[in-house]
Every structure is written in C-alpha cells, then in structure tokens.
C-alpha cells in the first residue's frame, strides 16, 4: 500500500511530468508509460536490486524530515521502463525532424526553382471561371488539368482532343493516350492525386481549390498547389479559399492575381415548397442525402406514370453519364432527375429547378467521426447552382425544398456567407514512413502512422489529414508478409472500407501478391463469379456496384504492380460490360425495389432501410457511398412520406387500411426518417414502438375506453411521438 501511494505521488509531481516531456513523453505517452511502470512494480514477483533499494528508502523514510529517498529518485527507472515500451524515445530527436511538417514548400525544390504566376479564378457555380482557365490551358504549348473527379478529367480530355489539342487522360485506374504510338502528349487531364510534380508545364489548372480543406483528400490539392512545375498556375474555386491560397503563396514568395466572376444566369429561391410529387415539372431534380429516399422518391414518381433518371455516388461513371444523357435528351420521355449531391460537380445537367428533399446530411469530420447536421452554405450553393446552367435550355434556375418547414432554413443557409477556408491538408509521404521504419523496425505500419501523427508539427496554415482509412487497411493486412513499400501502396488503395466484399477482395489480392503469384484474369473471374447476370433486386444491384469497385481496385493496382496484375486490358473489357449491366438495373430501379419489398415475409413488421450517406469521395476522385455496404438489407422497405400522400405496400404487408393510418399517424414517415438520421431514434426503438401500437390497437385501446382513458392514451401517444 505504501509503495502504491508513493508511485501515485510520483505520477502527480509537476517536476516529473516536465522531465517526461523533455524526454519525449507527452501527456498521453507519460500516462501510458506510468500505468505500465506501476503494473510492473506492483505485480512483479521481484524487481532489480537498485530499484528495490530506492523503493525501500522512499517507503521507510516517508514522513521524516531528513529523507534518504525521494519519489523523484524513481525517474531514471521510470524512463528506462518507458523506453522499453516506447522504443522511439531513444531516437526521438530524429523522429521529430522527420515528422516536422512546418515547411511543406521546401518539399518541392523543382517548383521553388522557378518563379510561378498564380491566377485565382473565383466565383460561384455556373460563373464560367473554369471555362476561362481551360481556354488558357488549350492555348498553351503544354499543360496539365487537375480535377477532383474522373468525370471532370474525362470531360477536359474529351474537350481538348475535340479542339485538336492532343491530350492524355491519367486517373488511378486508367491511362488513355491521344497518340496512337502511346507517346505522351503535351497536355494531360488527370485526377488531382495523379499529377506529377516533376514534369514542367507551361500552364496548370487546379480545379475546386476549396477542397484543399477536405479532411481526407485535402493533401492532394496542397501538393498540387505547392509542387506543380508550371509557369502559370490557374486555380479555380470558391472565393472562400482566396485568403488561404494568398497566404500559402506568400510563404513561397509568389503573388496571387485574383479574377472574380459572377453567375451567368439568375438563380431564384422560390417562396413555396413542392409539398407533393404531383407538382413536379419537366427539368426538376430532387436532391436526396440517403439511399432510402432515392429509392422511395423514384418509385413514387414512376407510380405517377413519369420516368426519372437516378444518379448517386456509388454508381460507375459510365452509368452516371448515361443517366445524365437520358435526362438531358429533349427527345427522351425522362424529364425528372432524382440524385444525391453527386451532381454537385462532374456532370453537365439541364436542370430547371433543384428541390431539396432534405437539408440534413450525414458527414465525416476531421477526426473521422460520423456527424449528422444541416448542409453547409458551400454545399447548398454548389448543389443549388446546378439549376439553370449557362447554355442549357433553361435560362433561369430555381431552388426550393420538398417540405415547407425546410424552406425557411434553406433560405437562411443560402443567405449566409461561406466560411473561409482556414487550413490546407497534409499527409505523410512513403519516404517519411520508410525513415520512421528504419528507426522503429519492429513497429507495425499502423503504429508508425500513429507515432508520425502524434509527433508531427504543423503551423497554423496546415492540418494533418484523417488517416483512419489508411490505418484500417494497414491493420487488415498486417498479418500478410509484405515489404513496407508494397504494404504502403496497398493501404493507399482507393476503396470504401464500409464495403465488406471490396475489403475482402483487397485482402485476397494482398495474400496472392505476397506469395508472388500473379493475379490473372481467370483468378479474378473465379473470385468475383464473373460473368454476372442483371440484378433482380436492390441487394444484387448493390453487389454489382461492389464488383465494379473490385475491378477498379485491380486496375489501380495494375499500374503500380504491372507484373503481378497483368490482365488490365481484359479486366477493363469486362468492367465495361458490368457497367452496361448496372445501367440496366438502374433503368429498372423501381422494379428492383418492388422485388426487394416482395421478399419480406407476409405479416412481418416494416423496417425502414438504413440511411446511407452518399457524399464521400474516394481517394482517386470517384464519388462513393460513405456507408454503402454489400450487406444491404435483403428486404428493403421504403417508408418515406411525401407531404400530402403516402405510398403503401400490398395487402399482405398491411392488413388493413386502419393499420396504414395508425402507422402514418405515429410517425413512420418523414419524421421517423429524420429522427433516425439525427440519431434520436434507433431501428430497435422503432420496431418496439410499432409493436406497442399494434398491441394497443388489438386491445381496443383507442375508441373503446372511457373519456379519461382516451385522454390518457392521447397524452401517452404524444409523449412517444416526441
């Protein structure tokens, strides 16, 4: 007891904490080291003689005026123990130097060797800012376009070659050469992660610069802005990023010329909400932030005899383009679009009116935590700005909401000023991690990343990007024997960790790779069960999307390990076929929804499908669902209420019209979904409430008791609804 008392006294002394900090133990490491040190002393059958003597002196002389021993004398033993559990303490100075991220401009000596001209094209969506930058790109002797999405890179690639300016396309999974002999063209359109900081260009275009603050991908914009070797850097994006870009360029000794643009067509926020799908007009686009709402709204639209196109993040690029083409075609009967915020960039759409089905959206913060909040002003402007595109058949754009209650809040959001971009993202490079591994040879890659982030130093203009996806993959393949560089490449693979099938396939890729056995076309077909049939329900459609992502993953790895992933051409061919199959499924999405619903056993309780956020973007620039999982519910049940009406299931699902009204009056419509999205209600609570309401209905609780009973019942029901 006396030993424990003195150990705790040692821990609390400010002098000891200061000494710990001087030796590389921050508050977190100091605490962990002390817990381990205390456990070692208290639970060991014996300790070293010198430590035993010190402890004896401290305990025996406790309370005396003349002390032979003092708790501070334990520090050398504590530090020795800490270095055993934290080996990096022995080389802390070297590790701090490696993880010093305070001067990112110095990482790019080639860019610092030239005097670059920075031109910021600032303006809202549909203001022509990118168009002016691209015109300069096309007129240059050489140039590179860096965009956030494969669709944007492909659009510039197409536009450039149509203008007789040979341009190559470079994405994580694809290389398309303008020259038949595969000789590199003078112009390149690429996703921003793929840009080269070593090749000199006359003009570089960096699109959507405000994404420099993105918690996951912001590092790619920082790298491009600081590292591109171009005489002119044309930066396009929101005015909110002007101050940060100016400050960053001040550290490189480069001035920024700002060119401001205004929207080319008027955009009006309507004074009334849609309220009912009966009020839809040609050119309308309903924006949803959950897959559940996408399915529900599209089915209700087609129940009215209207055709609608569907676009959401996890669809393959080819399917998105086909759906956009179908919606834009004036001769096609499809005049309505149901989409997520995936339409915010990368697709040219002829939209008359944007209708927000909801203004609440799931997001992921800087710490990787899932949050549910109202959309930001930047997001609202990006989406609303898609209405009334310049050059389309609609000369004016309109924006409103589905629900009357949301319209007031949407107006407030759109009238707010966009929050300034405060910091630019950074990410540890493979070279930095390799240097860490040299000093800490026994540490896992996940631990190396943790130590790097904990020791890293950044100034106020930068932040270290979220690395949870990287760590997840590092832990997943840790047991597979790979060299550090290969392991790092696998961990940077662009996949959504919420997709079990894709993660499983990455594991199989890594295992096969570690055996030095090439991953052939036959091997891939065998493990993905190719060829695949057209989907019969939503679950099968979700699985096909996951298989498409697996093919993307194979192609991405094939450009990094060509000898081990040798059949990229064959895989690209079957991926195009799979894209066509998915297109068929999306065109028949309402049939798939009905098939999914009919799979529910008669009489079972209706379960509202999980809300899937669809806004995240993969590291290679392809938009994906943040919670899109191959384990989608087999029986997907749609119960999203549209004001003024409700689509009901067949008679087997609902036994009577009375029960339908019960469910409707007790909030199984839009209120239930909103409570689910906000985390105030769980699926289990929802099922329990429904069970109680059914019991009350069967017991004649409503309409058969006394007036007092009716009043009590009404109060209780009100409390449950709240």
UniProtKB/TrEMBL annotation:
GO biological process terms held by the UniProt record: mitochondrial RNA 3'-end processing
Enzyme class: hydrolase
Domain of life, source organism: Eukaryota
Name of one Pfam family that matches: Helicase_C
Basic and acidic residues composition bias: residue spans: 706-722
Keywords noted in UniProt: ATP-binding, Helicase, Hydrolase, Mitochondrion, Nucleotide-binding, Transit peptide
Subcellular location: Mitochondrion
Domain Helicase C-terminal positions: 269-437
Primary subcellular site in the record, as a coarse category: mitochondrion
UniProt catalytic activity: ATP + H2O = ADP + phosphate + H(+)
Region entry Disordered, spans: 643-670, 691-722
UniProt-recorded Gene Ontology molecular function terms: ATP binding; hydrolase activity; RNA helicase activity
Cofactor (UniProt): Mn(2+); Mg(2+)
GO cellular component, one term: mitochondrial degradosome
The EC number(s) this enzyme carries: 3.6.4.13
Keyword ATP-binding found: yes
Similarity comment: family membership: Belongs to the helicase family.
Protein known as: ATP-dependent RNA helicase SUPV3L1, mitochondrial
């Amino acid at each position: 007891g006396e030993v424990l008392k003195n150990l705790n006294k040692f821990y609390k002394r400010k002098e000891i904490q200061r000494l710990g900090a001087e030796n590389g133990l921050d508050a977190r490491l100091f605490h962990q080291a002390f817990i381990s040190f205390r456990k070692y002393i208290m639970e060991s059958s014996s300790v070293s003689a010198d430590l035993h003597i010190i402890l004896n002196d401290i305990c025996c002389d406790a309370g005396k005026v003349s002390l032979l021993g003092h708790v501070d004398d334990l520090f050398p033993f504590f530090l020795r123990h800490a270095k055993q559990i934290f080996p990096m303490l022995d080389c802390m100075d070297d590790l701090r130097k490696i993880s010093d991220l305070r001067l990112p401009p110095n990482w790019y000596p080639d860019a610092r060797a030239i005097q670059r001209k920075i031109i910021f094209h600032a303006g809202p969506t549909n203001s022509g800012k990118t168009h002016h930058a691209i015109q300069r790109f096309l007129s240059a002797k050489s140039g590179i376009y860096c965009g956030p999405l494969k669709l944007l890179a492909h659009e510039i690639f197409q536009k450039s070659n149509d203008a007789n300016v040979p341009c190559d396309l470079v994405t994580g999974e694809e290389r398309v050469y303008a020259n038949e002999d595969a000789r590199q063209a003078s112009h390149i359109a690429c996703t921003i992660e793929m840009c080269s900081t070593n090749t000199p260009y006359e003009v570089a275009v960096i699109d959507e610069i405000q994404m420099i603050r993105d918690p996951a991908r912001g590092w790619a914009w920082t790298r491009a802005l600081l590292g591109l070797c171009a005489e002119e850097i044309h930066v396009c994006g929101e005015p909110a990023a002007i101050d940060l870009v100016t400050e960053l360029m001040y550290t490189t000794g480069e001035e920024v010329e700002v060119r401001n643009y205004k929207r080319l067509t008027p955009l009006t926020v309507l004074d009334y909400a849609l309220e009912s799908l009966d009020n839809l007009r040609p050119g309308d686009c309903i924006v949803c932030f959950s897959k559940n709402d996408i399915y529900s709204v599209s089915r209700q639209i087609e129940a009215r005899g209207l055709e609608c196109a569907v676009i959401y993040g996890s669809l393959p690029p080819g399917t998105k383009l086909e759906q956009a083409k179908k919606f834009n075609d004036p001769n096609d009967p499809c005049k309505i679009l149901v989409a997520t915020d995936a339409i915010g960039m990368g697709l040219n759409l002829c939209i008359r009116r944007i209708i927000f089905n909801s203004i609440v959206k799931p997001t992921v913060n800087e710490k990787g935590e899932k949050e549910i909040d109202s959309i930001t002003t930047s997001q609202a402007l990006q989406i609303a700005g898609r209405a009334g595109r310049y050059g389309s058949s609609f000369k004016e754009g309109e924006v409103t909401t589905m629900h009357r209650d949301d319209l007031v809040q949407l107006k407030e959001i759109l009238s707010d000023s966009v929050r300034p971009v405060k910091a630019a993202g950074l990410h540890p490079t493979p070279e930095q991690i390799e240097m860490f591994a040299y000093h800490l040879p026994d540490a896992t890659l996940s631990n190396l990343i943790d130590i790097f982030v904990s020791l890293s130093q950044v100034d106020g203009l930068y932040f270290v990007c979220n690395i949870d996806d990287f760590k997840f993959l590092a832990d997943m393949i840790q047991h597979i024997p790979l060299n550090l560089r290969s392991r790092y490449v696998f961990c940077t693979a662009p996949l959504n960790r919420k997709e079990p099938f894709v993660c499983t396939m990455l594991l199989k890729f890594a295992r096969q790779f570690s055996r030095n056995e090439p991953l052939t076309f036959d091997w891939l077909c065998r493990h993905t069960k190719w060829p695949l049939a057209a989907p019969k329900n939503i679950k099968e459609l979700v699985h096909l999307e996951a298989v498409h992502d697996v093919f993307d993953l194979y192609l991405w790895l094939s450009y990094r390990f060509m000898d081990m992933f040798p059949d990229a051409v064959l895989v690209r061919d079957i991926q195009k076929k799979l894209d066509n199959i998915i297109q068929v499924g999306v065109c028949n999405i309402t049939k798939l929804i009905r098939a999914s619903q009919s799979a529910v056993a008669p009489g079972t309780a209706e379960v509202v499908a999980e809300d899937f956020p669809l806004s995240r973007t993969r590291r290679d620039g392809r938009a994906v669902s943040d919670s899109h999982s191959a384990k989608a519910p087999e029986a997907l049940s749609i119960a999203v209420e549209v004001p003024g009406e409700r689509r009901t299931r067949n008679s087997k699902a609902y036994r009577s019209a009375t029960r339908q009204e019960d469910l409707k009056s007790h909030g199984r419509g839009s209120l239930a979904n909103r409570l689910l999205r906000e985390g105030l209600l769980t699926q289990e609570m929802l099922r329990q409430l429904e069970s109680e309401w059914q019991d009350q209905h069967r017991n004649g609780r409503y309409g058969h008791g006394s007036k007092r009973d009716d009043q009590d019942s009404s109060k209780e029901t009100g409390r449950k609804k709240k």
